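I have been asked to look over a protein record a colleague put together. Thanks in advance; the entry in question is below.
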Amino acid sequence: MKVFFDNCTTPVLAETLDGYLRHRDESASHIRDLPCGRHASDLEWVAYLAETGDDWLVITGDRRIQKNKAERAAFRQADLKGLVLAAGYQKTPIHQ
């Protein structure tokens, strides 16, 4: 499995988790590490993850993916799994 962190998360989370997963031939990536880039729309990165053919777990703080019909449909069609972090996460200092 591969883990993807959206723009709503700090790249430090992806880098830290990636260090733990590498020995299991798994990985974690932040959106900034993808070829589509940090400024890719949700539909763009969802399409990229789908094209890889890998099993992805998406971690985001963006609830809009659940509410926007086009994004929700693309997410489901890509067969992605996801966790949406609580709104309070966005207000938590990085060092906590």
